[in-house]
Design a protein that fits this description.
The protein has 445 residues and is an alpha/beta fold. It has helices spanning 11-23, 31-38, 86-103, 123-137, 156-169, 192-208, 231-242, 265-275, 289-293, 332-340, 348-351, 354-367, 374-403, 422-441, and strands at 42-51, 57-68, 74-80, 108-114, 146-150, 223-227, 246-252, 255-258, 285-287, 299-302, 321-323, 344-346, 414-415, 418-419. The structure holds nicotinamide-adenine-dinucleotide.
Amino acid sequence: MAEKKMETFDPIEMSEQQFEKAISCIKKLKKGLIEFLKKPKRVTIVNFPIEMDDGSVQSFKGYRVIHNRVFGPGKGGIRYHPDLTMEEVISMAKLMTWKCALLNIPFGGAKGGVICDTKVLTDGELRRITRRFTSELGDNIGPNIDIPAPDMYTSEQTMAWIFDTYDMLHPGKNNRPVVTGKPIEMGGSYGRNEATGNGVFFVTERFLAKALIPELQTVSGARVVIQGFGNVGAVTAQAFFRKGATITAVSDSQGGVYCEDGLNPDELLAFKEVHGTVVGMPNTMTMSNEEILQLECDLLIPAALSNQIHGENASKINAKVIVEAANSPITPMADEILSERGIYVLPDIVVNAGGVTVSYFEWVQNQMNQQWDLEDVNARLQKKMYKVIDLVFDHWQGFVICEDISSNEKKLNTLNGKKLDFRSVALSISVERVAKATLLRGIWP
Ligand code: NAD
């Protein structure tokens, strides 16, 4: 009897499995380059003390990782979380490299964070942690070196503190582009808060219009389930709802709600504002997060945590397309199962790239001391997101035809006998671009 494969949830191992699959789509890649692209360029670890409000002293650990900077300065969020690990930060920095390369944004991949629990820290303590962390990073960050942004449990306030600290240490320069995701009053971009959710919508709308699923060619009328109702999930729900989709279920950390006739995201947001959760919304049925994921729908949009769809539940998913708004919500084992079952997965590096795209717009505006209006930002975002899904889709379609050119049997979209997924295609485009640019620059010295 065949032995059951053990599933890994190690972030580095999972990103390596995806990487290996992607590079098998690339015809020629120097072996040494592959090793170089697998590893982070630089990992900075800092330990520092903070005086707490009660007069005690606590020690904190922070990380900043640059995975690659072939295309430009590092770019990536700063996360505050008690369970943060260096491995997680490294794999998220890698994801940023591939995302920026795919979008043709002139940044490399980076990520960082501090191990801390924001739920038990006061504003004053958070401000001191942020300022001290920034000063410890020193010249490892900078407008043309590495540009942080908000991530889980950091906000535009955190970015304002980072900017202020950096500005104090580097007087007399335009330091606004040192961070993105700043408050509007301090050089933030209009549309940044909604960028990821709006990007999720643009990518999906364009993908459906390609008629790969004949009965599902528009967002209008689509039945949509969204896991997570935070920044990304709520904006995504609003965008789909405005274009005539039926949002049948949403969830947050406390559980989910379902309504056959559809939920109104604005009413859900108002309810959540008062009650702190969507659970208990009138005229809805309460469900667990696991049940939400398994509901029958056209589009399933995970917009919360990583590893939500895995080897154990992938065979129970009942959607036509999964749109990865969150980072890494599907494990490599689940990817295989979904692919075999004919469920399309639109991958995170395409779907949630709206956030880094408008971060890049913010950086450009800061460099030019300009502030674009909202319509301008959204029109540029739409153009970028349409372009990236077109690119991935065209590669996916074209790929196979090349491979099978000598064969009489025409196997569409396959690689080594397996169905080719959009993630591998998207990743392979990014890796090929970074590899080519590395060689074009010429390897130093
Ligand atoms: P957020 O903190 O605003 O929202 C997260 C939501 O997930 C909350 O509603 C929370 O209650 C919910 N949640 C937590 N645990 C859950 C569980 N077990 N089941 C269901 N829901 C649960 O975060 P966000 O900014 O919306 O980010 C969501 C995801 O999108 C993350 O994976 C993040 O890395 C990714 N992402 C965000 C951005 C951005 O611009 N905010 C950009 C790219 C990727």
